[in-house]
């Protein structure tokens, strides 16, 4: 019976895969290339449309699904075949469509392989610079006032009212200038405006877009979300965007974005320099996973994220070098107002606010931190870097914080990074952030993203193997001590390696035995390098014959978990009764040799891990 069920399940899965492949194969493909010789009917790279708006018009009338493949180049929303030099209409936008996937970063006509895709190499730009004359701006705060941007599009992209099958992938969205009025929405979302939409945005860069202007309401310099918008952002970068109010990169009002593997870098705003979440409590969950917030700056408060009557969940996120400039500003990394914010495996480091809450300020709500590191944040003139109500557990908090298994120890980052005073130590406004590396030092192995390989340190961080032991640790490469690490890389493939000899790296598939499954995994990524992966058994940064040799050496051998990180002693006692004598039984469990007092007045607690005769 079991075999029959397995076969049925496999057959069902296979049918779905075949159906999905057939649907993808049957999708109409429309080509866009500004350099195509023509005729321009969108049927091939040679005959590609030269204007994206023509392709969107074709897709809108076609049976769905449709894919639009766009070659490298610059495309503006006011140009189409009927207006090849542009209309100058600032309200013109590229409108996303249900059932249409718009994909950029193709090599295009004239290349040996026109279908080759590379986001970094074949840059495909959706630009709001309708006249093609924008001057470079050093400070994002000056974007709205730059005269050459006066004619730019209010919104480069529109994602309103669409479903998740409206896809934008592989583009740079830039030069949107939403400096209009709040009444018609033209002061929100310079890069993308999304009213009630649920588009899927993948591998896009939102760069140097702006919303509002000094003295005028604006929100969402790069992206503005309103009225139950629930988009998904995957692997996107938001850099140097600006708004005069809140949400330098993303402004979300009664909306719930899902944000995965995204970076927010050097964005500016009055509040929430990177992100604003407002009035989202009770909606679909607002989530940020594997995101980094670097060097974002707010003039008023919330250098990284402003949560206003919202309930966001953040997992494996890094906040570093975010700041608030106002002398009365709070919340260098996060400011939670009447919000319930949950952070799991996050690192909040070297952020600053001049008054208080350099790491986090919470007013009228509470924050929950699990497996987090809060370190080296500016304490402000009121002497607090982490304020408000918070439930904290299994975390490393500088200065200490009550809660389950919290510590207060130097986390030993690979490189702390820091603020360069730029020659003016008394003026914080011109300081600039020098990025660090917040992987934890490990004598066994630490992933070095710059070198693309594992390196060994002289010391190991106290944040390794000290997270919540009930949380999944499978994603951490062996040896992982069977306990998740604290910090932004805990629970991921980039987690620093444990000194506990747990498991066997040759058991790549975690099946409990080294067998054909592990060999297949090894073959599937043969000679790949530059990324942390379980198939790199020797942890030297490349999958090759040295890894094959280790798998062969342990072939068909079972793998048993090491007990070295099992909790084996836990006791409370009065200082006067402690004599330091412990005994170990045959199960490697420990007990004190004296009897504990029973009056209920304990002055200390012992809890920890041991291996064999080491305590």
Task: Write a structural description.
It is a single chain. This protein has 615 residues and is mostly beta strands. Helices cover 9% and strands 28% of the residues. The strands form ten sheets. A twelve-stranded parallel sheet has the order 1-2-5-8-12-16-20-24-28-32-36-38, with helices on one face. Strands 3-6-9-13-17-21-25-29-33-37-39 form an eleven-stranded parallel sheet, with no helix packed on it. 49% of the residues are buried. Mean pLDDT is 88; it is low at 1-23, 565-570, 573-581 and 583-615.
Large-scale geometry: globular
Strand count, sense and barrel status of the largest sheet are:
12 strands, parallel
The residue ranges in which pLDDT falls below 50 over 5 or more consecutive positions are 1-23, 565-570, 573-581, 583-615
Distance between the termini: 50 Å
Share of helix, binned: under 10%
Beta-strand fraction estimate: 25-35%
Average per-residue pLDDT, rounded, comes to: 88
Count of DSSP E strands? 49
Rg of Cα set: 27 Å
Number of helices: 4
Spatial order of strands in the largest sheet? 1-2-5-8-12-16-20-24-28-32-36-38
Q: Structural class, from secondary structure content?
A: mainly beta
């Amino acid at each position: 019976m079991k075999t029959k069920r397995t076969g049925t399940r496999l057959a069902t899965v296979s049918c779905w895969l075949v159906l999905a492949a057939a649907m993808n194969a049957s999708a109409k493909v429309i080509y866009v290339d500004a350099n195509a010789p023509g005729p321009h009917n969108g049927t091939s790279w040679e005959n590609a449309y030269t204007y994206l708006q023509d392709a969107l018009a074709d897709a809108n009338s076609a049976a769905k699904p449709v894919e639009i493949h766009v070659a490298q180049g610059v495309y503006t929303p006011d140009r189409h075949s009927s207006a090849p030099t542009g209309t100058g209409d600032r309200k013109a936008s590229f409108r996303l469509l249900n059932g249409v996937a718009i994909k950029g970063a193709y090599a295009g006509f004239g290349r040996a392989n026109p279908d080759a895709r590379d986001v970094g190499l074949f840059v495909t730009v959706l630009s709001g610079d309708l006249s093609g004359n924008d001057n470079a701006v050093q400070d994002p705060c000056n974007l709205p006032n730059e005269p050459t941007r006066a004619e730019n599009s209010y919104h480069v992209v529109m994602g309103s009212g669409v479903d998740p099958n409206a896809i934008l992938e592989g583009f740079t969205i830039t030069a949107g200038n939403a400096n209009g009025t709040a009444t018609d929405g033209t002061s929100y979302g310079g890069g993308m405006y999304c009213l009630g939409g649920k588009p899927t945005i993948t591998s896009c860069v939102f760069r140097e877009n702006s919303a509002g202007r000094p003295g005028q309401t604006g929100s969402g310099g790069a992206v503005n979300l309103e009225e139950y918008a629930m988009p998904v952002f995957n692997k996107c970068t938001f850099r140097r965007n600006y708004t005069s109010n809140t949400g330098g990169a993303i402004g979300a009002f009664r909306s719930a974005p899902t944000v995965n593997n995204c970076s927010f870098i050097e964005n500016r705003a009055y509040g929430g320099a990177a992100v604003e979440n407002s009035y989202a409590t009770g909606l679909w969950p607002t989530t940020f996973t594997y995101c980094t917030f670097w060097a974002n700056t707010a003039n008023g408060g919330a250098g990284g994220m402003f949560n206003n009557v919202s309930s966001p969940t953040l997992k494996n996120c890094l906040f570093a070098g975010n700041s608030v400039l106002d002398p009365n500003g709070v919340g260098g990394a996060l400011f939670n107002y009447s919000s319930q914010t949950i952070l799991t495996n996050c690192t909040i480091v070297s952020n600053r606010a001049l008054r208080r809450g350099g790491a986090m300020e919470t007013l009228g709500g509470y924050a929950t931190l699990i497996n987090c590191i809060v370190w080296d944040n500016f304490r402000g003139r009121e002497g607090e870097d982490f304020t408000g109500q918070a439930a904290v557990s299994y975390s490393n908090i500088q200065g200490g914080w009550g809660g389950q298994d919290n510590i207060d120890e130097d986390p030993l980052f690979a490189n702390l990074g820091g603020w360069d005073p730029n020659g003016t130590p008394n003026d914080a406004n011109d300081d600039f952030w020098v990025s660090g590396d917040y992987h934890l030092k490990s004598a066994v192995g630490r992933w070095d993203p710059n070198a693309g390989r594992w390196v060994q340190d002289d010391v190991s961080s106290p944040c390794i193997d000290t997270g919540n032991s009930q949380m999944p640790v499978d994603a951490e490469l062996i040896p992982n001590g069977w306990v998740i690490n604290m910090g932004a890389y805990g629970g991921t493939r980039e987690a620093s390696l444990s000194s506990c000899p747990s498991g066997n790296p040759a058991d790549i598939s975690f099946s409990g035995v080294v067998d054909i499954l592990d060999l297949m995994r090894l073959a599937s990524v043969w000679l790949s390098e530059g990324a942390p992966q379980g198939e790199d058994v020797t942890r030297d940064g490349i999958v090759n014959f040295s890894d094959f040799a280790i798998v062969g050496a342990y072939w068909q051998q079972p793998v048993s978990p090491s007990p070295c990180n099992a909790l084996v002693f836990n006791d409370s006692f009065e200082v006067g009764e402690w004599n330091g004598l412990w005994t170990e039984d045959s199960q490697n469990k420990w007990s004190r040799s004296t009897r504990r007092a029973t009056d209920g007045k304990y002055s200390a607690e012992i809890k920890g891990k041991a291996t064999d005769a080491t305590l």
